[in-house]
Amino acid sequence: MKKKQIAITLGIMCLLLTIAISVQIKTMNSASSTVSQTLADNGLRDEVLRMKERYDNAYSDLQEAQKQLEQVRQEATQDDNTAKAQEAELKENNMILGYTDVVGDGVEVILQDAETTNLSLDVSTQLIHYDDLQNVINELKNAGAEAIEINGQRLTSNTAITCEGNVIKVNGERVGSPFTIRAIGPQELLYGSLRRAGSYLDLIRARGNRADITKVDDITIARYAGVSDVKYLKEDK
Amino acid sequence: MIFIAIILGCIVGALIGVNMPMISYTYSGYLAIAIIAALDTVFGGIASTLKKNFDLKIFVSGFFGNAILAILLTYLGQKLNVDIYLAAIVVFVGRMFNNLGIIRRYYIEKFSEKKKDTKKEEQEQVENSEEEKQN
Questions:
Q1: Is the ipTM of this complex over 0.90?
Q2: Cβ contact A20–B1 (<8 Å)
């Protein structure tokens, strides 16, 4: 009887132990594919992984908090008419600022570097540059686009489109060819104004690059994924 | 009996562990030191069963107590910027080798005793047959 008890306990302990070991092995396998030899490198890698994890956690916390905020706001404005109006205004402002996902009809512009390089010409002209994106965005905005994204990056009032060597950064995130620019706005106007003769898309096409525009219904443009902090702005009273 | 239980536990544990979710990288260091502590206790348990002075209470409390203490020490070390977990590893692994030595010695002695016994029996049998012949 006593021996049986001992055997069962030992078995359970080994069970716990092997569970822990296999979980640990799994974690380590996913954490690092290349094992560095020196302690300093290991320390740095640990630091990076920890920071990344903290960032992920913080980001999910942020999203959670925003959901809660939304809920609280809805609850608070349930039976109050002025509050309801304010809530609607807030929602609209958030849409304009790029802090909510939006849906609507619009156009999709695809810009792509030339597929075959013609070395007799200047290679630089056969690429899509950041200023090409800026010009297309300008034309779209001029034609009345209300929400625009480039390769999933929502354009906000603080978005910068910059040249970073072989990639372009939008909102500080790298994007590369092909560029898919999606815009919600007056569909016919957007489409027509970008297809007019001599439009900027024509110029891009003339350089040997691909520039297509199509009408798309029910485009979903995701919200701006980052956080905008206001540090220097103060309300003028 | 005991070894069947251990092997069964290991196999079932591995199967469950493979399907468990991953833990976050930050805590994997603590889990690692807890594993070493628990492993030490299990070897200690096996060694003490062989020595016939196994105590269930000591074993279970050692299993969890050692693991928790090791985790706490590691945490403290991280806060103080001292690698205390190294000390824990040295102690636990040292004890593990001790216990493994005890287990090894027990089985080798058992094995060699058996051999001696069989040799003695053979000799006796030979002597007996010789006596029979003389008779």
A1: no
A2: no
